[in-house]
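Support reply, case 0932

Customer input (verbatim):
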Amino acid sequence: MFARFVSAAVVSGLLFIVPAVAPAVPNATPAPSASTSPAPEHARDGGIIAGKISSVDFQRNVIAVNKIEISVMPSTQIQGSDPGYHAFTDLKPGMSVEVYTSQVAGKYIAQIITLR
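Our regenerated output:
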């Protein structure tokens, strides 16, 4: 009786092990190789760019200050001396600004724009 119980336990245990031991299905996604593409560049401090806005490109979300193009992101904070929120559409050529930036791949990204 004990031998039958042990045999049944071993057989049922094998039934649970078989799927785990089954041959693996080949992975359809190839392993990444070192030569496919370079690692993304991390953001670094771009400093403060102060001056007058010379142009505003609403299609590209870019402003130019001191002939430097700066991308304005949806997360960019635009602050003024008056209380309330400011939007990218409030920026006009000729306005004096201080732009706190970061740099990614040599391009300036606005983090905070302060209207002066």
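We compared this against your earlier run and they match. Two observations from our side: Residues 2-21 form the longest helix (20 residues). The chain has a mean pLDDT of 80. Please reopen the case if you see a mismatch on your end.
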